[in-house]
């Protein structure tokens, strides 16, 4: 019996700590798929936590031959050293000018965000959850959940995205839609550089702009970010206070930034009996042993896992 309503905020959600009793569960794959399908089926609320592994499983490619082909001109210009291996590393290249910086980033945003369509798996997932109350907490910048049809008010992208820019110094808390600008840059790019007249300047301090991606403390969180944060807290508070079953569906969240989804999900599990956890991950689907049968960690190709769960549900 609970007295008084609990209010869960994103801030107190984030206070999870690492588990000490991780195991790879020994249950056979088919049985795990059945368990996961049942946890989702039984739940009234499903909170999706999506990390980089979800985009990768859905088909997003960052490196390898794909990068070599699509970024051949950048490799030729900047060398094939440690930076020019994939879209993640290339973002850290010390570009010598703003024309060079935006020359690269406009291309990455076109390829990984604006033109990207890796939504079939996202759509399968959403149809699996049809009829549930759902919310998606995502660290992915590619916008694929929204493209797949999940309403924007059910998504909280905590780390920024490929569609917005901000003042590099973060002198004011506003981000700017850059989709049109990136289209223009993409059309005008010459020898990996964009024309100087397309270089954006901060409308407040006149300084340079950056991607609105969380790389340091200057990351801008504007009103929309705080509204999404509030909707996330409201969803979780409502779900917990309802006393109904909640399934945490964790997709491709590794140990790079476990403090945003993985550890907080585990904390929720420890605190609320009504919650179950489905953790899908290619290599890192370890589960705290103490969770027992309330959690299932499926260590396999996530695309296959999602499709198999979908078939059973
Ligand atoms: Zn500024």
Describe the structure.
The chain is an alpha/beta fold. It has two domains: 10-57 and 117-159 and 222-312, Rossmann fold; 64-115 and 161-213. Helices cover 40% and strands 17% of the residues. The protein is built from 13 helices and eleven strands. A six-stranded parallel β-sheet has the order 4-3-2-8-9-11, with helices on both faces. A three-stranded antiparallel β-sheet has the order 6-5-7, covered by helices on one side. A two-stranded antiparallel ribbon has the order 1-10. The longest helix has 20 residues, at 223-242. The model has no long low-confidence stretch (mean pLDDT 95). Bound molecules: zinc ion. The site of zinc ion has 7 residues, from loops.
Summarize the model shown.
This protein has 313 residues and is an alpha/beta fold. The protein has helices at residues 10-13, 29-42, 52-57, 64-70, 72-78, 87-90, 98-114, 119-128, 144-147, 179-188, 223-242, 262-271, 302-312, and strands at 22-23, 45-50, 133-138, 155-157, 160-167, 176-177, 209-213, 246-251, 275-281, 287-288, 295-299. The protein has 2 domains: 10-57 and 117-159 and 222-312, Rossmann fold (3-Layer(aba) Sandwich); 64-115 and 161-213.
